[in-house]
Amino acid sequence: MTDPSPYDLAQQAAARLAELTGTARHDIALVLGSGWLPAAEMLGETTAEIDTTDLPGFSAAAVAGHSGKIRSVRVGGPDGQQALVFLSRTHYYEGKGVAAVVHGVRTAAAAGCRAIVLTNGCGGLKETWTPGTPVLISDHINLTGKSPIEGANFVDLTDLYSSRLRGICKEIDPSLDEGVYCQFPGPHYETPAEIGMVRAIGGHLAGMSTTLEAIAAREAGMEILGISLVTNLAAGMSGAPLDHAEVLEAGRAAATRMGELLTRVVPRI
Ligand code: 8IG
To answer: Number of C-alpha atoms within 13 angstroms, CB side, residue 11?
Structure first.
């Protein structure tokens, strides 16, 4: 027998997800990056929590500060939406392949989600972005050299990070800035010279996730909101080496601001 396609596998995962959560359809998905869990706790009432490994196509989480769980969360708002919250993601640097990286996104689409909020922790290239500053992703540069799309499907990527959703965020918090996110393969951080390259090619944020997921989400027809939490100044800018513990601490410190943003924006998506 041939292996199921990534799209079939996502359909299977969504069917199992519906059984395990007792919720036939989800409306909106959120993927939590480094530092985002405390913020997401404020979103609403968790009606179910499952292990990703109980769904077809997912494997165990690999990074401290990421847990391999998916929550079904009742979100406030007029229509009472049901959110699917991924407490972890599969990173490109885990070496499981691009299909594994975007399996959660495809599962969310198959589960009915018409929008997705992709969050991450990353390095910032603007001095004014002190650790703990959330920044809206306006566009991206995918430096992995890979695509999650299989076959000759020439997907359009203009307005990939919905200007409508960015507008809603800015109505809620006019002080929010925007930036272009560059995805590096990782897992090492950049060299100062590579951050110089990011600046030269028009990037403002450096990280190890999000762009492949955004491409898969667009392919699946979802509207995308991308928000980075700047947890550190990009390599070479602060004079100090980058430290994963500091990254997690910056997330904890900024949780309230990000939690308020998510809680107010999600019901309006
Ligand atoms: I959190 O400075 C976090 N993730 N590539 N560079 C890259 N990824 C990151 C960084 C960073 N900070």
So the answer is: 5
